Amino acid sequence: MSNDATTLLVGASTDFLRNFSPFNRMEAEALAFVAERAVLAFHARGSEILTPESGVPTHFYIVQRGKIQARQAGQATVTEYTSLTLGAGECFPIGAISARRPSTNAYVAVEDSFCFQISADDFLHLMQISPVFHLFCTQYIASLLSQSRQQLQSSFAQRAAEQQTMTTALGKLIKQEPVFVTPDTPTRSALERMSELHLGCMVVVDAERRPVGILTQSDLLPRVILAGFDLARPIGELMTANPHQLPASASAYDAALEMATHGVRHLLVVDSDSVLLGVVSERDLFSLQRISLRQIRAGIDNAADIAALQRASKDIRQLALNLIAQGIGAEQLTQFISALNDALTRRIITLARERHDLVGIEFAWFAFGSEGRHEQTLSTDQDNGIIFRCADAKQLKETRARLVEFARTVNEDLAACGFPLCKGNIMASNPELCLTLDEWKSRFGDWIREPDPQALLNASIFFDFRVLYGNERFGDQLRSALNKGAKGNSAFLRMMAANALKVMPPLGRIRDFVVEDDGTIDLKKSGARLFVDVARILALRTGVESSSTVQRLRQGSTKIGMSQEEVSAIIDGFNFIQLLRLRSQHLETEHDSADDNRVDPESLNELDRRILKEAFRQARKLQLRLKLDYQL
Amino acid sequence: MSWLSRLKTARGSQSPLSEEAERALEAWHALTEPAHEQPHFESRYVVLNTEATGLDLERDRLLAVGAIAIDGGLLHPQDAYYAQLEPSPGDALASLLGFTGRCPLVVFNATFNRTLLERAFARQLGFTPEFLWIDLYFLLPSLFPERLERPGRLADWMAAFEIETFQRHHALGDAWAIAQLFLAAQSRALSLAVTNPRTLADHAHAYRQKLKV
Question: Does 3.40.50.620 match the CATH number of domain B42-212?
Fold first, then answer.
């Protein structure tokens, strides 16, 4: 007889649930399953229904009436995670109960509320019997993670905005209307205006107000005074043509990077039609940035000896630390470090050339590994080599010997400036890595033809080469030979893929992360490397020229039919791991301990932990794609 | 067996009970009266509600009973009872006892419901079972003075809590609303250190006494 009553009550619950998604779309049988098992409980205003401390959730809740707030627990408040309020018909926790892990949110009744609840076992059974419910939960979890990614970004952006940091758009940094002349303006009148208006530079534009040249104060001494230039002649003959310019939407970081890379003090800001909007000077950026990039750059360029370069190297490090503290993104940060380290290396090479006779030898200096990918962190050791031309075979031995001698000096000087010598002897002073174009080609060809484990390891280091000093054409020729060779050898790519899949993302089935014995995760070995390896294969397969992982992913993956969003999510994941690496190095250097790539997930705040997990998921996704493509 | 024969005599001319009802009664009598001092989360309360021909205690008759258990602070649809008295009122009431056991009974307006029920028990089963009665009519205003200062009608309390039910004026439909009100009452009582059925009943009783003064 009690069945009559149960039927009535279950019917009432069913009618209630039918008002809400996903229950309104749910299979009749599955809906009945929920309604028959849904038990009602009351939660007074202010009471906690579920917290991370309650461990793995034992129940799944459906709000019947009232308001339940989901709050990010733990230290995540620093990231301003917006709390989420759930009303009638909404459910929680979905992610935690599906993954059988403690909830990351605390669920608190913000009004007197009633909630239906079913047991965790019933929830899991429901997932099994109801495709609609299963889809609902999966989509919910996916949206949650993309949401948290956006929140991370916006919280960085917000912090950046508050601190008036280098993420400011250049358009906002322009202080005054641009002053400009046309190329036919007599030099004298252009200089008079510069003097009158106290300008550091004069921009020369065409009839459409598009910049065609620039004349800066520092050009005056060598080009005008010392050269005895006739001031009646047009400025067009005197200016530096093709001035450096950036769109108004570029950030102050981009400008600083451009200035540091090219050693200039002024950048022209243009709109989308290349029309001049204004000038941003190094001084404008200084006001945003305490450490001057250009000072470092100038310090490097003008360094007369290694002692001066050592100081510059320390400055680079300090700058990187400041930038990390400001919350700058990993991609930009590694580019900075890379650009300044490149300048430093070039200066070391230039200084070394003064001490070695290399007359008549045409060569280029290669960077390999992370340096080759523009992904140097603060603790990267040297990976370099030399490529040279030797027309006369009889001269080969002697030429190589001279280059190796020279390279030894460079390697030692680099070590003195904070780039540790490579333990594996992947350095230009190793005669095995001081080769002609043909020798490099045949070396690469051997690895591709016979991909034994050592060859695959070599490929993962050397294929990420880039020319850091000297004739770029050497690099281009080697790259095109490599891409051609690899593309035509799918067996090799398949081996590379199998090799890349040997390391799995440290995601646990039960726990969030699989950690090593000391409770940490190696963010290089089981994090960044997963992306780097797949990106390399992708680049070889699709013929991407760049050696940077982000560029390889961006350019290569669209070719194999991945959507823009998918690629962005993957790149976000990679960048996040890189950022964590840099951040942990940052903290560790301040404590004066050895740099490494280990992070203890327990030490991360809730949001970072969640995003790290998502980043590893992206790595898994990328690996899965590789697996499918090569049927591994 | 002596009480059973007494019972049979007392029931006089009523039609005989079904075997199932006999067993339910027997089982009920075998239960010992609990102390009602175990905390809410270990207590099973039975929310009881009636449907009658009208509201005049002198003339109107009990038509149906609805009961929903609140066990450990949870309302489970499987733990519910509903029966119309006709055609066999003795069976319906005996089965109700089988459902309630000796659990404390929660009603809204005991004056009406308890009287109606006890009269029916006496007439149909020949005895008046002893229960701990908790009357929400007095308990609710004592616990939630911020919502309603004085005792109100069920409709007032449902409005105050924005509680709805699938069918008003139906024994189980109203019981469903009363049960939800009781869930809220239990939670509030706990925060006021009114932790078990006995003290809960006392609390309602004390409020009632205060009203009379």
Answer: no
Interacting residues of A189 by C-beta distance below 8 A, sequence separation 6+: A181
Tell if the CB–CB gap between B188 and A44 is shorter than 8 Å: yes
* Size of chain B in residues: 213
A457 lies within 8 A of chain B by CB:
no
ipTM: 0.91
CA distances to A72, A406, A426, A464, A532 from A423, rounded to whole Å, are: 45, 19, 8, 18, 21
Averages of pLDDT over runs of 10 residues in chain A (632 residues) are 80 92 90 96 92 87 93 48 75 85 86 95 92 84 60 48 60 84 94 89 94 91 88 93 90 80 87 90 66 70 88 80 66 78 92 90 93 80 92 90 95 90 91 95 93 90 93 90 86 91 86 83 91 93 88 84 82 86 63 63 77 88 89 82
- Domains annotated for chain A, with CATH where assigned, are 2-159 (2.60.120.10), 170-289 (3.10.580.10), 292-478 (3.30.460.10), 489-632 (1.20.120)
Chain A: closest CA distance from residue B191 (Å): 10
Sequence ranges of the domains in chain B: 42-212
Q: CA of B213 to nearest chain A CA: how many angstroms apart?
A: 32
Query: From the CA of A86, how many Å to the nearest CA of chain B?
Result: 17
B74 touches A: beta carbon within 8 Å = yes
> Is-contact A287 A120, C-beta < 8 A?
no
pTM over 0.90: no
